[in-house]
Amino acid sequence: MSDRLRRAVEERRDELVALTRDLVRLPTVNPPGDAYGPCAEFIARRLARSGFETRLIVAEGEPGHTDRYPRVNVVARREGRHPGRTVHFNSHIDVVEAGHGWTVDPFEGVVKDGRVYGRGTCDMKGGLATSIVAADAFIEVCPDFPGAIEISGTVDEESGGYAGVGYLAKQGLFSRPRVDHVIIPEPLNKDRICLGHRGVWWAEIETRGRIAHGSMPFLGDCAIRHMGAVLEAFERDLFPALAARRTQMPVVPEGARASTLNINAIHGGQTDDFTGLPSPNVPDRCAMTIDRRFLLEEKLEEVKKEVTDILDALVRDRPKFAYAIRDVMEVLPTMTDREAPVVRAVAAAIEAEFGRAPDYVISPGTYDQKHIARIGHLHDCIAYGPGILDLAHQPDEWIGIDDMVQSAHVMAGAIDALLKGAAEPARRDSQLS
Q: Which residues form the Peptidase M20 dimerisation domain (predicted)?
């Protein structure tokens, strides 16, 4: 079976390249959410030709959805001949803006030097194409397979995934008994298994002051100066404490094994949407967005408290200091057990393909596994796919053709093991949190 699967994948090499190029040529840039509908429809047509039943699911009412930019997801299912488990491959179809610095057309899917270039090749349309080809190869070799194979193309992962996997999870599409195993073909390198991700807490901190004429600032109270005091306290008390914390999670790169805080944005005072000269005002509002990434060993309530403790100390010690804080997003860390069936199946397939055991890693940032775990309560989930993580969002983004073919071998082998039960230990939840 292994040799037959390999041949079936190899025979589809040119098809894999063509499918990747076709997907790249659909410029699904987020924001705002261009071409989601045409891309979902293209995937649905392609999978229907392989015998999948397809559904287009619009996330009405979810963040980002508008009549102009509808959030359209596609979910496809191919039933086997006998009852059994379901393996689901989930890929996001949205890509970030191309940006500057390209030497090729970012939406042409240029092929050269054994690579396909273009925005989204690595993150993650190459992974989507790979999962489709792997499923096709398996179905050809094993038409009487038990269980079911699902493939989805979902939106908005780059902006949180709430109208994509988050929405579908709320509809029960990522929960047992419908789905048993999930593989997300994010670009974590072809010989690595990503077990999960760090936690994230985004929040907006607002400092408040009093407006006055800029020539008489003593009659007002500058909210930006108050925010400066917050930054100073963070530099003095918070950043050193975070840098000293280390996790046992195998997070990559090495620097992400510490707790981190990023200042995403600061806005205060005169806006930049004026014509002419700015007005001479003392700013009475200043807002800062923080992006706190935390570890499995940390509790969310403690992560929040160390920030509010600093703010409360400024209330006590700094005259006229007042603040408000608003949660924007919070996601707990997740790490799938190495003995989970999906991990065992993909690990065995990687070892068969490359002659060595895989590396097990944790992503520094979140991806759609967060919704599958927290909403779907399905913990037999990993990220595995072709592509080099460092190339994501970069100019001249590319994916290696050989890498996609090798990953398709791994995916096809994993499908074979999961649907036939070869990777199944005694059933137990595989979530560490």
A: 196-315
Instruction: Give the pLDDT of residue 430.
Output: 34
In contact, 330 and 192? CB cutoff 8 Å: no
Domain residue limits, the chain: 2-197+333-432, 199-331
Residue 363 tokens, joined? 């992503």
Residue among 99, 250, 248, 252 at smallest CA distance from 189: 252
What architecture is domain 199-331? 2-Layer Sandwich (3.30)
Q: Which residue has the tokens 């791994």?
A: 410
pLDDT at 121: 98
Fold: same for 2-197+333-432 and 199-331: no
Each residue of 379-421: pLDDT tens digit? 999 999 999 988 999 999 999 999 999 999 999 999 999 999 8
Predicted confidence band of residue 432 (pLDDT cuts 50, 70, 90): very low
1 has pLDDT over 70: no
Q: Look at residues 331, 385, 399, 336 and name the one whose alpha carbon lies nearest to residue 362.
A: 336
Stronger pLDDT, 70 or 425, i.e. the higher one: 70
3-state DSSP: the chain helix, strand, coil percent, rounded to 5? 35, 25, 40
Looking at the DSSP bridge assignments, the partners of residue 261 are 292
Q: Which residues contact 302 (CB under 8 A, 6 or more apart)?
A: none
Note whether 46 and 26 are within 8 A (CB): no
Sheet strands (E) in 61-168 = 72-79, 82-92, 110-112, 115-117, 146-154
pTM of structure: 0.90
